[in-house]
Amino acid sequence: MSQPDISPDVVLDPSDPAARPAQMFPRLDPEMCGRVRSYGEEERMPAGTVLFERGHRGVDFFFIVEGEVEVFEPDEREGPRLVATLGARQFTGELDQVNQRRNLVSAHATQDSVVVRLRRADFQRLATGEPDIGEIILRAFILRRVGLIKLGLGGVVLIGPGYAADTLRLQRFLVRNGYPHRVLDTAVDPDAEALLACFALERDQLPVVITPDEIVYRNPSVAQLADDLGLTETIDPDHVHDVAVVGAGPAGLAAAVYAASEGLDTIVIESEAPGGQAGTSSKIENYLGFPTGVSGQALAGRAYVQAQKFGARLAVSRSVEELDCAEQPYRLTLAGGRRVAARAVVIATGARYRKLDVANYDRFEGQGIHYAATAMEAHLCAGEEVAVVGGGNSAGQAAVFLSRTVAHVHILVRGAGLTATMSDYLVQRIASSPRITLHPYTEITSLDGDDVLTGVGWTDRRTGATETRPIRNVFVMIGAAPNTGWLDGCLELDRQGFVRTGRACEATGLVHSPYETSRPGIYAVGDVRSGSVKRVASGVGEGAIVVSAIHGYLHPVEG
């Protein structure tokens, strides 16, 4: 990742950050240099001076005026591994610069150098006050994080059986949170045995996560892993935020971006990873402004960085267990007992796919039965047959995406076809693909296997005919169940459990906003809202619009 020399004869993948060194490690022009210097303090650093170390939170941003700085990954056994060498008019940092997560790498001056140090608050002023410079810096930060992920630098090693539910659970968490890692599958990777022996680990302790400083976590929960890796920001229970957004899907992230950019003290609480259900979409092709499509994870990742750029704080891997709406400020109790106080609350917890009612379902959930079709799952089932259950856009996107790498995709729907429930561009693409077969009026009736799923049977409801295929991976994308169990009677819900808003709650007199719930200062946006349109664009729109109502609630204009 250290600014490679690229020969004109070498053909590079355009998605590879190494193909964009000028953006990954830009040199600012002299005029920009002057502006950056005005935001910080100039310091002279003798050779060997440490600028920052791995594991620290909120490290400073350094702009190099003269000299040279090496960024490296510490390694207890093999010594430091070089990540990048930076010179005059370049700068340190990657995505952890915009939040309070623990830093992934270290840096020191390799020769006598002059740098400009920007503290966290100064860096935020630069990123927002100088938009042209901010754009260059944030693009570089994103590319650097992608580079760390691609090369497995600065992260952890996950060791375990590739098909095991807990291995996949931890891998999904690391992937969706953009944390660099390498996976050693003990079933096929020859290096795994040596590493297990090195750390005196037994197979019944798998999966394990090993950090660069050789701390071993044996089958941790995602909350424990997030805490120990520094992915969760520290939360002050006595601090009262202007807005707490519960859920970091498209609607929640949009609310966070607009609230923070308009000066509201904003915190976002997310139980898994940014993006919500949309974050698991392999490609969204009908979202405005992306003519070639964009993956749900990429869209969520950009919005996540955008919210943090404006000062929003994000607490991931922390589900909300209770909302105390009896008094104000409202208080949210998180898993583990931490509490968050806020004057206004935006509920954007979305919905989840329903489960199939078939024997052995729970047994194979997470290790054969999936609710997302990303690059991780595509790699898992490359060259095999798979089944996709569902007739909505998510199911269609999954089928088209998977058809590029698997042997064949079987789409199973209970109805007559797809035209009533799926966008036409997906229907046409599925119909024209030789690798996709649609099975109408069909439902799964059997799931077979010992430790892992090995066979799937389905039945045509019209004829009663059954068929069994050697399928090890099923993607279930049916219906939508709202994530509102944690509200526990606090708000008015409809019969399906979605949050009522606007005119549906006009008996309370709260009709100032179509997103206002039965409690003042509490709003619902996106898929969790009763009557909402289940689309990414509409969720983003609702998240943006609700901020004006929050302003009106927090700062009422007296007539």
TrEMBL record:
Query: What name has this protein been given in UniProt?
Result: Thioredoxin reductase
- What positions does the domain Cyclic nucleotide-binding occupy? 24-144
Q: Which Gene3D superfamilies match?
A: FAD/NAD(P)-binding domain, Jelly Rolls
* Membrane spanning stretches: none
Keyword field contains Electron transport: no
Organism whose genome encodes this protein = Rhodoplanes roseus
Q: Which domain of life is it from?
A: Bacteria
The segment annotated Disordered runs over 1-23
